[in-house]
Amino acid sequence: MTFDITIPVLNEEATLQRQVGILYAFLKDHFTTQGQWKIIIADNGSEDRTRAIAQQLSEEYPEVHWVSVPRRGVGLALKTSWGQSKADIVGYMDLDLATDLQHFPEAYDALAQQGCDLVYGSRLHPNAEVINRPFKREVASRGFNFLLKSYLGVGFSDGMCGFKFLHRSILENLMNGGAQNDGWFFSTELLTVAEWQGKNLCELPVKWTDDVSSSKVKIIPLAKRYIQSMIALKKLQVQK
Description:
By secondary structure, the chain is an alpha/beta fold. It has two domains: 1-97, Spore Coat Polysaccharide Biosynthesis Protein SpsA, Chain A (Alpha-Beta Complex); 100-240, no CATH class. Helix content is 43%, strand content 19%. The chain is built from eight helices and nine strands. The chain has helices spanning 16-30, 50-60, 74-84, 103-112, 135-152, 171-176, 185-196, 219-239, and strands at 3-9, 37-43, 64-68, 89-93, 118-122, 129-131, 163-167, 201-205, 207-209. The strands form two sheets. It has a seven-stranded mixed beta sheet, sandwiched between helices. The chain has a two-stranded parallel sheet with strand order 6-9. Helix 1 (16-30) links the parallel strand 1 (3-9) and strand 2. The radius of gyration is 17 Å and the shape is globular. 40% of the residues are buried. The mean pLDDT is 93.
């Protein structure tokens, strides 16, 4: 099966070349079939040299491509990238590669061989290993996921982990079912709607190393947006 890995980026000139190089080398070593995979850099409205570096990488490596996203928003970046994809499997990971890359072959095998429709990384699974995560982020993450379970009635353990892959064939149904958010909540919507639709979700406990220095996430404003998005998604479910 072919797959595309999308990396949404915003003003990442300092680390883009190095991190994409690490991911590229890993995939080249583990997936040797020519034409099987692509790395898609989704530029989310960067104002530094990110776009120029992405262009340079796409010229240097045939498996690396970049797309320009019309405005900011991780969900919009993923929808733009996946909407142009022809791969069997689409997904994304964060540029900081916080999720250990050794989990990707596991995710691929779950989709290609084990009948999973969607695979998501979980930092809250008992077998997960979380390194360097600040206490306030851990509390916020657990609190958010508790709200998801109690308010939206879902069973998955971690809606926020930046490591998700799915069969592209189910994407249209998920978007029609309510996965439409242009921001970070889009990845949570994918899991929620997939569960509502009875898709086969597979949880992957991951080794996660938090890179606090590179994070652009502001917990309080993000929490407010997430709660608003949860309410909107719940209303949509009720209307259907």
